[in-house]
Structure formats: C-alpha cells, structure tokens
Design goal:
The protein has a single domain, classed as TIM Barrel. The protein is built from 13 helices and 12 strands. It has an 8-stranded parallel β-barrel with strand order 3-4-5-6-7-8-11-12, surrounded by 5 helices. The protein is globular and about 55 Å long. Bound molecules: NADP nicotinamide-adenine-dinucleotide phosphate.
C-alpha cells in the first residue's frame, strides 16, 4: 500500500515541480496530476500503449493511478497492475485507486452480455436481481466484496489505497434516495471491514452527476448525508475513524458545476461539492479534467489568458487543479506523448484562490 515514507521520498526525488504540485492525501503525498485509464478500445495494442504511458508517468512524477474494474473490460486494471510490477518506482510510493459498481465483462464484450451477467453474477448468487439497476449496475455489499477480490487479483496488489463506489446515482433509477443511502451505509460497513482486514486503506464515492447537480435534481445525492452514513458504518464496524476520504467528480473549465452549484448543506448553509469536501477534509479527484480531450483543442480565451501553461491541455489541467479541495486532477493518458506534455503542466503554478474565483466573476 502507499505509505507516508515512500510517497514523501517520491516527492523528494521529484523536486523540480512548482509549489503545491504534491498535495497531502491522508498521511501520504500525491501528485496533483493523476493518470486516468477509462477511454480506449479493449485491445492488446491499446494495453501496450497504456502500459508504456503508465510506466512513463510513474518515472516522471505522477504517483496517482486511477482505474475501475469495468474500464476496458478489466484490461485497464490489469495493465495498471503490470505497469506497477514492471516499474522501478516503489509500489509504496503510488496511490492506486479503483472502483466497483458497474458489472464488468472479462477482456472483451461478450456476444450475449445479458447471458454473461446471468451466469457469472445472478446464477452464482453474487448479485440479487433486485439490486441490479439498468441491468448492469449494483452497489450491494456482497457484490462490492466480490469486486474488491477481483480488483486485487487484477492489480496484483495486497491493498487498494482508495476504493470508490462507482456512480451510486445510477441506483436512483430503481430505488428511492433513502434506499440508496441505506445501501451505501451497508456497503460502507463492508468497506470498513475490508479496511480492518487490510484489503483497502481508504474509500469514497466516484460520481458523474450526483454531487454537481442541484438538490432538486433526480440524480442528486447529498455529500453531507453520505459522510454521515460513512461515520455510521465505521461505528458499526468498530473502527475508530472512518476510512471515507475520497470523492471523484468531473470538473473542468466547461463543467464547473461542482464549484458553482451550492447543493450540499454545510455548517453555514449550502455549499458547492468542492467547498463542502474542502471543509470536511475530504480529498477531491477530478475526472474528465480535459473534458475527454476536447479542451486540448482550446479553452475560452478569457480563461486561457489567466492560466499558466504552454499548451491548452496544460492550461486546462492547471485550471482543474486550482479548485478548492482538489488533491489530484485525473487525466486519461493512453499515449506516452500526452504524458510528457501533461506532466509538464505541473512545472507551472496553479491559480491562487482569488484568481480562481475571478474566473467565475
Ligand atoms: N464517473 C467516473 O467515476 C469517471 C468518469 C469518467 C472518468 N473518470 C476517471 O477520470 C479520468 C480522466 O477522465 P477521462 O479520461 O474521461 O477524460 P479526460 O482526462 O478529460 O481526457 C482524456 C482524453 O484526452 C486525451 N488527451 C490526454 N492528454 C492530451 C493532450 N495533452 N493533448 C490531447 N489529448 C490529450 C486522451 O488521449 P490518449 O488516451 O490518447 O492519451 C484521452 O482521449 C478517467 O481516465 C477515469 O480514470 C471517472
């Protein structure tokens, strides 16, 4: 697992970045630019490029690897595991995050996906049919337990540093918000138990819509309520403190709702997801930091002018990692050239708090 001493040693060995490039996560330090592994075809060729890109990233100053069991039908997790095993960088210097929630296929999309899910997960009792949303999503404790075992195997690791429940808002298509919170609490209790067993160290939620929409939206989930459920789970599992530590949400120049929409009840009234997370000492990991590559083609002129960086991609990354509460901005990088360009964004300062606020005035 990632440790305090190894991550701080990694930071020492990469001392040519701008101030605040490395940020605290728990007792570790992590690079504020992280490697994402979502996009790309499920092919051997793409696996090879990802493996090379991850090894380059680890060598050049990125120690956050983000994946999910369903990404590229488990190929991304396996490639992350291979790259870590082959890398000269100490495994304990790397924060490895993965997610469970979407029922994964195995290496490729099967000819009959419904039959695959039936025989692998329903007939075996790993998933109860009532817990399945949209025929492909489940966050019940027994399923998440099974998925953690598979992820540990794919990654070849003893411990996952940060385990996310993946897009829990998907369950709102099938059940009430109250029932989703109940299910999250039951699953968090299992995650607290897996923490105690050493299989995961921290956990959180990775969301696409839930935390950045208004409180009246159908797919809204309240971050304060989720945190309360995590505290209750820690109590139920007999853990002194909760391991709920990370929140993942999309954030970029074009998708800034996590900063602009105040839908989470804080001590002094409603707050944005980013400010609530900041004040609750949760670490935010931004997804889609380049808006799935589109921002590499250009940013709105008045925003670009405020940001440091030599390329649009670098300026977009520096915008995302300037936001409050952000530990690391994840960028999908299946191409070694993109790693070189993107990691260099970390040699520039992100925006200070007032300059960041001024972008929204
Ligand atoms: N709901 C969720 O939890 C969720 C949803 C989406 C994403 N995520 C996580 O967040 C990560 C980042 O999001 P994302 O991958 O969807 O989108 P992204 O980081 O905004 O964009 C990735 C795309 O940008 C391209 N790219 C990267 N650097 C570039 C550069 N310098 N110039 C031009 N193009 C560049 C990549 O191409 P190459 O691959 O060829 O380098 C890839 O196609 C994901 O990989 C995943 O780990 C989580």
């Amino acid at each position: 697992m990632a440790t305090q001493s190894a991550t701080w040693a990694y930071r020492e060995a990469h001392d040519d970045f701008a101030r605040t490039y490395f940020r605290r996560f728990s007792d570790c330090v992590v690079s504020s630019i992280g490697m994402g592994t979502y996009l790309g075809d499920p092919t051997d060729e793409r696996d090879d490029r990802y493996r090379e890109a991850i090894e380059d990233a680890l060598r050049s100053g990125i120690n956050v690897l983000d994946t999910a069991i369903n990404y590229r039908h488990q190929r991304s997790e396996r490639v992350v595991g291979d790259a870590i095993a082959e890398s000269s960088v100490d495994r304990e210097a790397i924060l490895v995050a993965t997610k469970g929630g979407f029922v994964p296929f195995d290496g490729e999309r099967p000819d009959d996906p419904a039959q695959y899910i039936r025989s692998t997960y329903l007939d075996t009792g790993i998933i109860d049919r009532d817990d399945l949303a949209r025929g492909q999503h489940c966050i019940a404790p027994g399923f998440i337990d099974d998925q953690i075992d598979r992820s540990l195997d794919n990654l070849g690791l003893e411990t996952i540093d940060l385990y996310y429940v993946h897009n829990p808002e998907t369950q709102l298509t099938e059940r009430s918000r109250g029932a989703v919170y109940e299910q999250l609490e039951a699953t968090f209790t299992r995650l607290e138990e897996r923490r105690a067993a050493g299989d995961i160290r921290h956990y959180g939620v990775a969301t696409w819509e839930a935390l950045r929409v208004s409180a009246t939206a159908e797919n809204y989930l309240s971050l304060p309520e989720i945190v309360r459920r995590a505290r209750a789970a820690a109590d139920a599992a007999g853990n002194e403190t909760t391991g709920f530590r990370g929140v993942q949400l999309p954030f970029n120049v074009q998708m800034a709702d996590a900063f602009t929409i105040e839908s989470h009840e804080g001590a002094e009234g409603p707050q944005s997801a980013l400010w609530f997370a900041h004040d609750a000492e949760l670490s935010v990991f931004t997804s889609a930091s380049l808006m799935q590559g589109k921002l590499a083609d250009g940013l709105p002129g008045q925003v670009a002018a405020k940001l440091d960086g030599e390329t649009s991609a670098q300026r977009a990354i520096n915008f995302a990692r300037s936001a409050p509460g952000v530990a690391s901005s994840l960028v999908g990088m299946g191409s070694p050239d993109h790693v070189t360009e993107n990691v260099a964004a970390g040699r520039f300062e992100p925006l200070g708090a007032s300059a960041f606020d001024a972008v929204f005035e």
